[in-house]
Amino acid sequence: VIYNVCNSECTETFDTKLNNSQKDELINCMDVFHTLCIEHNLWYNIAFGTLLGAVRHHDMIPWDDDIDLLVMYKDIDKIEKITNIMKKRFGYKVERTWKLIQIYTKSGNCIDLFFIENKNNNTSRCSINSKTCEAGLFIRNQSWWKDWFGFPDSYLGEIKKYKFGNLTLNGPAKPTELLQFWYGHNFLTECKTHYLD
Asked: Rounded to whole angstroms, how far apart are CA atoms 135 and 125?
Protein backbone atom coordinates (compact mmCIF):
# COMPACT_ATOMS: atom_id res chain seq x y z
CA VAL A 1 0.00 0.00 0.00
CA ILE A 2 1.32 3.45 -0.93
CA TYR A 3 0.21 6.49 1.06
CA ASN A 4 0.64 10.16 0.29
CA VAL A 5 -0.98 13.45 1.13
CA CYS A 6 -3.87 14.01 -1.25
CA ASN A 7 -3.29 17.49 -2.55
CA SER A 8 -2.56 18.98 -5.95
CA GLU A 9 0.79 17.15 -6.03
CA CYS A 10 -0.68 13.76 -5.18
CA THR A 11 -1.43 12.78 -8.76
CA GLU A 12 2.25 13.20 -9.61
CA THR A 13 3.10 10.42 -7.14
CA PHE A 14 1.07 7.80 -8.96
CA ASP A 15 1.06 6.78 -12.61
CA THR A 16 -2.06 7.80 -14.52
CA LYS A 17 -3.63 4.51 -15.55
CA LEU A 18 -5.83 5.59 -18.45
CA ASN A 19 -5.21 7.89 -21.39
CA ASN A 20 -8.04 10.23 -22.44
CA SER A 21 -9.39 7.81 -25.04
CA GLN A 22 -9.48 4.88 -22.59
CA LYS A 23 -11.15 7.01 -19.93
CA ASP A 24 -13.77 8.23 -22.44
CA GLU A 25 -14.53 4.62 -23.40
CA LEU A 26 -15.00 3.64 -19.77
CA ILE A 27 -17.18 6.67 -18.99
CA ASN A 28 -19.32 5.93 -22.08
CA CYS A 29 -19.68 2.31 -20.95
CA MET A 30 -20.83 3.51 -17.53
CA ASP A 31 -23.27 5.91 -19.16
CA VAL A 32 -24.84 3.02 -21.08
CA PHE A 33 -25.04 0.87 -17.94
CA HIS A 34 -26.58 3.71 -15.90
CA THR A 35 -29.19 4.41 -18.61
CA LEU A 36 -30.14 0.73 -18.78
CA CYS A 37 -30.42 0.60 -14.98
CA ILE A 38 -32.91 3.47 -15.09
CA GLU A 39 -34.88 1.77 -17.88
CA HIS A 40 -35.01 -1.53 -15.95
CA ASN A 41 -35.51 0.01 -12.49
CA LEU A 42 -32.27 -1.51 -11.21
CA TRP A 43 -30.54 -0.38 -8.00
CA TYR A 44 -26.78 0.14 -8.00
CA ASN A 45 -24.33 2.12 -5.90
CA ILE A 46 -20.88 3.36 -6.85
CA ALA A 47 -18.30 1.83 -4.52
CA PHE A 48 -14.66 1.68 -3.46
CA GLY A 49 -12.39 3.95 -5.52
CA THR A 50 -15.29 5.05 -7.70
CA LEU A 51 -17.19 6.43 -4.70
CA LEU A 52 -13.99 7.94 -3.33
CA GLY A 53 -13.34 9.59 -6.69
CA ALA A 54 -16.89 10.97 -6.85
CA VAL A 55 -16.59 12.45 -3.35
CA ARG A 56 -13.00 13.67 -3.52
CA HIS A 57 -12.39 14.44 -7.22
CA HIS A 58 -15.96 14.60 -8.65
CA ASP A 59 -14.48 12.29 -11.29
CA MET A 60 -12.35 9.17 -11.56
CA ILE A 61 -9.33 9.08 -9.29
CA PRO A 62 -6.54 9.95 -11.76
CA TRP A 63 -4.65 6.70 -11.12
CA ASP A 64 -7.72 4.43 -11.15
CA ASP A 65 -8.46 2.18 -14.12
CA ASP A 66 -11.95 0.79 -13.55
CA ILE A 67 -15.40 1.57 -12.16
CA ASP A 68 -16.70 -0.37 -9.15
CA LEU A 69 -20.40 -0.87 -8.48
CA LEU A 70 -22.40 -2.67 -5.83
CA VAL A 71 -25.50 -4.44 -7.12
CA MET A 72 -28.07 -6.56 -5.31
CA TYR A 73 -27.83 -10.32 -5.59
CA LYS A 74 -31.64 -10.54 -5.82
CA ASP A 75 -31.41 -8.53 -9.07
CA ILE A 76 -29.08 -10.95 -10.84
CA ASP A 77 -31.65 -11.78 -13.55
CA LYS A 78 -32.13 -8.09 -14.38
CA ILE A 79 -28.38 -7.57 -14.40
CA GLU A 80 -27.85 -10.46 -16.79
CA LYS A 81 -30.54 -8.98 -19.06
CA ILE A 82 -28.77 -5.60 -19.00
CA THR A 83 -25.33 -7.09 -19.62
CA ASN A 84 -26.73 -9.10 -22.54
CA ILE A 85 -28.04 -5.85 -24.05
CA MET A 86 -24.64 -4.24 -23.51
CA LYS A 87 -22.99 -7.17 -25.27
CA LYS A 88 -25.40 -7.59 -28.19
CA ARG A 89 -26.50 -4.03 -28.86
CA PHE A 90 -23.39 -2.08 -27.84
CA GLY A 91 -20.58 -4.58 -28.44
CA TYR A 92 -19.16 -4.68 -24.91
CA LYS A 93 -17.42 -7.84 -23.73
CA VAL A 94 -18.98 -9.31 -20.58
CA GLU A 95 -17.25 -11.86 -18.34
CA ARG A 96 -18.79 -13.69 -15.44
CA THR A 97 -16.73 -15.39 -12.74
CA TRP A 98 -17.81 -16.96 -9.46
CA LYS A 99 -17.39 -13.61 -7.66
CA LEU A 100 -18.41 -10.81 -10.04
CA ILE A 101 -19.45 -9.69 -13.50
CA GLN A 102 -17.14 -7.46 -15.52
CA ILE A 103 -18.15 -5.31 -18.50
CA TYR A 104 -15.12 -4.53 -20.71
CA THR A 105 -14.49 -1.64 -23.06
CA LYS A 106 -12.61 -2.19 -26.33
CA SER A 107 -9.37 -1.05 -24.68
CA GLY A 108 -9.77 -3.63 -21.91
CA ASN A 109 -10.85 -1.51 -18.95
CA CYS A 110 -13.96 -2.56 -17.10
CA ILE A 111 -16.89 -1.96 -14.82
CA ASP A 112 -16.82 -4.43 -11.91
CA LEU A 113 -20.22 -5.50 -10.56
CA PHE A 114 -19.95 -6.74 -6.96
CA PHE A 115 -23.03 -8.63 -5.79
CA ILE A 116 -24.26 -7.98 -2.27
CA GLU A 117 -27.09 -8.98 0.03
CA ASN A 118 -28.30 -7.28 3.19
CA LYS A 119 -28.74 -9.77 6.02
CA ASN A 120 -29.15 -9.10 9.73
CA ASN A 121 -28.41 -5.39 9.12
CA ASN A 122 -25.04 -6.20 7.53
CA THR A 123 -23.92 -6.21 3.93
CA SER A 124 -22.51 -9.49 2.63
CA ARG A 125 -20.72 -10.08 -0.63
CA CYS A 126 -22.14 -12.94 -2.66
CA SER A 127 -20.71 -15.62 -4.84
CA ILE A 128 -22.80 -15.64 -8.03
CA ASN A 129 -22.52 -19.28 -9.04
CA SER A 130 -25.31 -20.42 -6.77
CA LYS A 131 -29.03 -19.84 -6.29
CA THR A 132 -28.42 -18.16 -2.93
CA CYS A 133 -25.96 -15.62 -1.58
CA GLU A 134 -24.95 -18.12 1.12
CA ALA A 135 -22.49 -19.69 -1.32
CA GLY A 136 -20.17 -16.73 -0.74
CA LEU A 137 -19.90 -17.25 3.01
CA PHE A 138 -17.29 -19.99 2.88
CA ILE A 139 -14.57 -17.60 1.71
CA ARG A 140 -15.21 -14.81 4.17
CA ASN A 141 -11.95 -15.68 5.90
CA GLN A 142 -10.16 -14.32 2.83
CA SER A 143 -9.04 -10.72 3.18
CA TRP A 144 -11.12 -9.23 0.37
CA TRP A 145 -14.36 -10.71 1.75
CA LYS A 146 -13.60 -9.96 5.39
CA ASP A 147 -12.02 -6.51 5.18
CA TRP A 148 -14.15 -4.86 2.50
CA PHE A 149 -17.61 -6.23 3.35
CA GLY A 150 -19.57 -6.92 6.50
CA PHE A 151 -20.39 -3.22 6.99
CA PRO A 152 -23.82 -2.15 8.31
CA ASP A 153 -26.40 -1.90 5.53
CA SER A 154 -27.29 1.56 6.88
CA TYR A 155 -23.99 2.78 5.34
CA LEU A 156 -25.62 2.44 1.92
CA GLY A 157 -28.83 4.15 3.00
CA GLU A 158 -30.69 6.30 0.51
CA ILE A 159 -29.46 7.09 -2.99
CA LYS A 160 -27.68 10.35 -3.74
CA LYS A 161 -26.63 11.62 -7.16
CA TYR A 162 -22.88 12.21 -7.62
CA LYS A 163 -21.05 14.18 -10.27
CA PHE A 164 -18.55 11.84 -11.88
CA GLY A 165 -16.86 13.63 -14.76
CA ASN A 166 -19.69 14.42 -17.17
CA LEU A 167 -21.97 11.76 -15.63
CA THR A 168 -24.35 11.74 -12.69
CA LEU A 169 -24.20 8.40 -10.87
CA ASN A 170 -25.98 6.74 -7.92
CA GLY A 171 -24.23 6.42 -4.59
CA PRO A 172 -24.98 6.38 -0.85
CA ALA A 173 -26.56 9.55 0.57
CA LYS A 174 -24.11 9.59 3.50
CA PRO A 175 -20.79 8.26 2.14
CA THR A 176 -18.53 9.20 5.06
CA GLU A 177 -18.98 6.06 7.20
CA LEU A 178 -18.57 3.77 4.21
CA LEU A 179 -15.44 5.54 2.93
CA GLN A 180 -13.97 5.49 6.44
CA PHE A 181 -14.71 1.76 6.64
CA TRP A 182 -12.78 1.19 3.40
CA TYR A 183 -10.06 3.87 3.51
CA GLY A 184 -9.77 5.15 7.08
CA HIS A 185 -10.60 8.50 8.65
CA ASN A 186 -8.22 10.45 6.40
CA PHE A 187 -9.84 9.42 3.12
CA LEU A 188 -10.21 13.05 2.00
CA THR A 189 -6.58 13.99 2.61
CA GLU A 190 -4.54 10.81 2.31
CA CYS A 191 -4.05 9.16 -1.06
CA LYS A 192 -3.78 5.41 -1.02
CA THR A 193 -3.39 2.88 -3.77
CA HIS A 194 -3.12 -0.89 -3.61
CA TYR A 195 -3.49 -3.86 -5.86
CA LEU A 196 -5.69 -6.75 -4.85
CA ASP A 197 -5.19 -10.37 -5.85
From this structure: 10
Q: Tell me if the pTM is above 0.85.
A: yes
| 113 C-beta neighbours (distance < 10 Å), count | 24
User: Is pLDDT at 169 greater than 90 in this prediction?
Assistant: yes
